[in-house]
Amino acid sequence: MYQEDCDIIYSVAGGTGNGIIEAAKDYNRYVIGVDANQDHLAKGNVLTSMMKMLDVSVVDLCEKFLKKELIGNTIYEYGYKNGGVGITEMEYTKEKIDPKILEKVKEIEKLLIDGKIKVTNSYVPEKK
Predict the structure, then answer these.
(1) Is 120 a domain residue?
(2) Which residue in 54, 111, 125, 127 could disulfide with 116, CB within 3.0 to 4.6 Å?
(3) Is residue 35 assigned to a domain?
(4) How far apart are CA 82 and CA 13, in angstroms?
């Protein structure tokens, strides 16, 4: 994709996306990491990483279990509002991004937290 002049790739491939991060370095292009903070893997080439905060969900579910509040056959969702997902602080790339864009990103994050932007999932589990 970089050979075809793509500027940014969102890897969405967990650890297997590390090859894309290496390619971003090799082609001096950009990539968005996924699942964890991958910004350090190619400083200046990883714009940000979309992180799953598994610690938040694990602690929450363990607390529910210990309090006997964990309900079986229930889907627990973790998103922006409850700290289950987020992006990095763009430690190595913030200076490369227009401050207006960074402000817009913060605005969108707030809209997600406030529920004014709804993220939907095409998968709807069957009701039993």
Answers:
(1) no
(2) 111
(3) yes
(4) 24
- Residue 95: partners with Cβ closer than 8 Å, 6 or more residues away: none
Separation of alpha carbons 9 and 27, rounded Å? 12
CA distance 82 to 75: 15
CATH of the domain at 101: 3.40.50.2300
Structure-token match 């890897």, residue found? 11
Q: How many domains does the chain have?
A: 1
On whether the CB atoms of residues 9 and 42 are closer than 8 A, the answer is no
Q: Which residues on neighbouring strands pair with residue 52, listed in sequence order?
A: 85
pLDDT per position as a tens digit, 54-90: 999 999 999 999 999 999 999 999 999 999 999 999 9
Instruction: Report yes or no on 119 lying in a domain.
Output: no
Q: Determine, yes or no, domain membership for 13.
A: yes
Question: Domain range spanning residue 19?
Answer: 2-113
- From the list 20, 124, 108, the residue with the least C-alpha distance to 75 is 124
pLDDT in tens, 18-63: 999 999 999 999 999 999 999 999 999 999 999 999 999 999 999 9
pTM of the prediction? 0.82
